[in-house]
Amino acid sequence: MSEPATRGPDPGGPAKPPAAPGEGTAADARSAEVPAPEGPVPAKAHAAVPALDVRDVTVRFAGLTALDAVSFTVRPGTVHAVIGPNGAGKSTCFNVLSGVYRATSGSVRLGPHELTSLPPHKIAGLGVARIFQNLALPPRATVEDSLLLGRHRLTRTGFLAAGLRLPSAAREEARHRARVREIAAFVGLEKQLAQPAGSLPYGQQKLAELARALCMEPSLLLLDEPVAGMTSDERRRTAAVIAGVRDSLGISVVLVEHDMGVVMRLADSVTVLDFGRRIADGAPGDVQNDPAVVRAYLGEETAG
Fold first, then answer.
1. E strand or H helix at 221, and its extent?
2. Number of other residues whose CB lies within 10 A of the CB of residue 111
3. Which site in 13, 232, 248, 303 is 20 to 30 Å from 172, CA atoms measured?
4. Strand pairing partners for 54?
5. Residues forming a β-bridge with 82
6. How far apart are CA 231 and CA 234, in angstroms?
7. How far is CA 280 from CA 178, 181, 214, 286, 293, in A?
8. Backbone φ and ψ of 136, nearest 5°
9. Rounded to 5, what percent of the chain is helix, strand, coil?
10. 171-217: per-residue pLDDT in tens?
11. Residue 177: CB partners within 8 Å, gap ≥ 6?
12. Is 0.70 topped by the overall pTM?
């Protein structure tokens, strides 16, 4: 998802402002019910998840300032939403966090690690996993094999040992597959493991991408519009899994999402961007009532 220089129509529909208290839509009300994920919780909970500290990050493209001295902190084991109208800089921010873009100035730190100048594979190696808005599953591979791709950075077996099917390689593969089955059960896909990934309904494919990211054993998960295009039931299910990632695993989540019902009920903290600048940062209840946020979404002539 790319950031336009100016606001334009959102392919998923116009961005909606955070709902005022008592003014949520029916979809928001349904999103309020976030059931716990079914199945066993993955074995490894992250007891020492580091904070993500974004400080004065600026990104310029040929004279255009896409981000202007943006700062926020993602506390360990929380869901932190980054929201804003179209063209606000959300995708640019995500691309900096994951190493796709390099900041012109500023700093991004994950615990003791400076991420600002690292390429994406190095950032992933430090425990940062990202899922994109568009589906990126190999359609003919089984769900199990697709999830197994997420274990790549954790694989220690060499190419030769794997090719010769040495006992050590077989044992490691068995451990990875067992872990994949645990994570599939956590997100509710254990019965689909043998199916081709491309044959799943859209909502289950999005869950499979989330499961593949979890297979990396991340400490920080970047979710780019994880419920976009889903039915209300799929949104509820995905929101439940994201809540479980935070509550059961202690993994930090940074979330970009246009569904404000999901954002306001899942997020512990919200950062609002507008034309590349941070205009609000705080608890969801405070942010949704901030006059600057209302103006950014609805325009200047909406008060009164």
1. strand 220-224
2. 15
3. 248
4. 72, 108
5. 271
6. 5
7. 43, 41, 30, 9, 7
8. -140, 40
9. 40, 20, 40
10. 778 888 999 999 999 999 999 999 999 999 999 999 999 999 999 99
11. 144, 148
12. yes
